[in-house]
Structure formats: C-alpha cells, structure tokens
Design a protein that fits this description.
There is one protein chain. With about 350 residues, the chain is mainly β. The protein has a single domain, classed as YVTN repeat-like/Quinoprotein amine dehydrogenase (Methylamine Dehydrogenase, Chain H), CATH 2.130.10.10. The chain contains no helices and 28 strands. The strands form seven sheets. It has a four-stranded antiparallel beta sheet with strand order 3-2-1-28, with no helix packed on it. It has a four-stranded antiparallel beta sheet with strand order 4-5-6-7, with no helix packed on it. A hairpin with a 7-residue loop joins β22 and β23. The protein is globular. The two termini are about 25 Å apart.
C-alpha cells in the first residue's frame, strides 16, 4: 500500500477584498477496476456532499487500477496507475487522457505522485520480477519526461515519494533480498535526480518496508509498516526512530498515508479502518472515531482546510464495499460515511493551491 500525502493552505483572500477568491471544495478519489471494466475516478464539487464518477467508458481508464492522484487546481489533475499509466485532465475531469511515459514498461505500476511549483512532476513506482524501482520526472508540466538513475533503484521498489523542492526529493519503499524477503529502502537526491544516495536507519529500523514520505518545513517523516516511522526536524541531517502506540495488529498497524498540516500536526491513515492524529510532532497520538468499516484498511486521507477532511479505504474481502468518510470538525466527533463504492479506493486529493 502506497501512499503518498500533501499540505493544504487556504486560498481565501482578505475579507476586505471586494472580489474574494474562495477556495473550492473540489476533491477526487482514485480506485480499482470494478465490474464495468474501468478504473475508478470519483469527483465531488462540495467536499463529499455529492459525487459523480468520471471517465467511465473512456479508453484512457479502461482496464487500469488507479493509485495516487494530485489536483493542481480545479482544472488540472494528474493520476497514476498500473500498466505504466500517467493520467491527466485539463478540464476538471470532463475528459481524461493518458500521457506518454518516458520508458516502455507495460508491467510498471506507478504509485506516488508529487508536484512542485505546479509544473515539476515526480512519479515513483516499480516494474519487473523481482520489482525494480523507477522515478519519472517532468520539469515542464508534462511536456517532456525523463526516467532517472535505474541502477540506483535496482531491486528497490518505490512506494512513497515526496519532492520538498525541485532539487530535494525523498523516496521510500522496500529492497528485495535473496530468497524473496524484503527490507526497507530509503533514497534521496539533492540535485534534482542527477545523483542519489540512501539512508540506513539506526538499530535495524529498516527491517520493515517503508510506505510513504511527507514533509512540512524542515520536518520530514518517512513512514511504513508496523506503525513505525522516522522523523527529521532539521531537513534530513539527523533522524529519530519512532512508533505509533496502540494501533493493534501484530507489532502494530501499517501507516498507509500521512497528512501534515504543519510540522506538529499530522493525520495518519492506518490499517483496520483507523485514523490517528498527533498535534505535537508525534509525541502523543489520538485515535479518531470512525464509522464501522470492518475489514477495510484506511489508505488515503486529505484535508481542505485543516478541519474538513476525507479518507478512503481498501477492503480485504470480495466484492469490496468501501465508504468515503468525512469530518468537518477535525475529527472531534464521529466521522460520517458520505459515499459507498463497490471498488477498492486508494487515494484522495483536494486542490493543492
């Protein structure tokens, strides 16, 4: 499970502005192929009050399981999926098109996407058996693409990616070792992908795979399975090993997605339908009241303004029944089910600016 998560800031102008620009409550959700044979893209113009499906019947979505998604604004949205798929809309989802990737890898699964400055696009994923990691980047809004250092990512599948700037990028995932076992893998570049280096955590903290990366200011968090994560508060110079307590499961529940509102306030989507929040940079965590979604794993979460948020699950049963859930008060009361989907859901995005 992958994930990739974003910081949202209000775009509302000063109240004295005679023509204020109000940030729209648009959100998109990705999901797997359902009985129609098309991958799932859901859209809401009002933060989950109403929903519509986009792209059904479009060749661009046929037979594709979609994973991560990033909305630059109300018109421009990017998504990733299996089959080496980069999906794009420039009209808010009225039409979707597949972009040409920089490598011919039909078995590639593309997962995390992160966009800087509205035009610098980074995508991670994996291909082959055992999987090799890949990173694609475009510095011109998708007009041209490059595939980066394949040797560095050999046998290292990428599940998480975060571009702090166009030059400083972190990736996380797992490394395949002899016999088919996996260990955590962390890589980073400080020069836009020209060269890469890896991080080896202290105390064998790489024994579990990493699922995602997120940052706010100088605080970087790399999170993974078994409720474990690493945090740096000095821009990646030093790291501290951490665990989220009392998440259940054997050795703890996986952290599937992590949203950072600021360096201290993080919202996490966990296995077993759980959502946890910390307001002190991980020192303490509080579990949210989520509705009964037994047998599902919360895998995607995003917020509109720090109070209103949506989260989506993956189901561990067939046929899947996956509700989109919502809070309007930062989780102070029970989250509500806003939509029930008969497809596994993976990620949710509000407009990023």
């Amino acid at each position: 499970m992958i994930g990739v998560i974003i910081i949202i800031s209000s775009c509302k102008k000063d109240n004295n502005d005679p023509d204020p620009v109000v940030k729209k409550k648009y959100a998109w959700v990705t999901g797997s192929i359902d009985s129609t044979g098309y991958g799932m893209i859901l859209f809401t113009p009002d933060a989950g009050e109403t929903w519509e499906r986009q792209g059904q019947g479009s060749e661009a979505l046929e037979g594709i399981n979609f994973d991560d998604i990033w909305a630059i604004d109300e018109n421009n949205v990017w998504a990733t999926g299996d089959g080496n798929t980069i999906l794009r809309t420039t009209n808010g989802g009225e039409t979707w098109t597949r972009e040409q990737p920089p490598a011919d890898l039909p078995d590639a699964g593309l997962s995390p996407i992160c966009i800087v400055n509205k035009s610098d696009i980074w995508i991670g994923g994996g291909y082959g058996v055992p999987a090799n990691g890949l990173v694609y980047k475009s510095m011109d809004g998708g007009s041209t693409w490059a595939m980066l250092d394949t040797a560095f990512f050999h046998h290292n599948s990428i599940q998480g990616l975060w571009a702090i700037t166009s030059e400083k990028v972190y990736v996380g995932g797992h490394h395949y070792v002899e016999g088919g076992a996996t260990r955590g893998f962390i890589g980073y570049t400080l020069d836009g992908g020209a060269t890469w280096d890896s991080i080896t955590p202290a105390d064998n903290f790489n024994k579990w795979e990493w699922i995602g990366v997120v940052a706010s200011g100088n605080t970087i968090v790399i999170y993974g399975s078994k409720a474990h994560y690493m945090v740096s508060t000095d821009g990646g110079n030093t790291w501290e090993n951490k665990l989220v307590p009392n998440t259940g499961g054997q050795d703890g529940a996986d952290i599937n997605d992590l949203l950072m509102l600021d360096p201290q306030t993080w919202w996490g989507a966990f296995d077993m339908g759980q959502i946890f929040i910390t307001t002190d940079g991980g020192t303490t965590w509080t579990e949210q009241q989520t509705p009964g979604i037994g047998g599902t794993f919360t895998v995607g979460i995003d917020t509109w303004d720090g109070q209103l948020a949506l989260a989506v699950p993956f189901a561990d049963f067939y046929p899947p029944i996956c509700p989109v859930i919502k809070t309007e008060n930062r989780g102070a009361t029970l989250w509500d089910k806003t939509y029930i989907c008969k497809s596994n859901l993976w990620k949710v995005t509000f407009i990023k600016d």
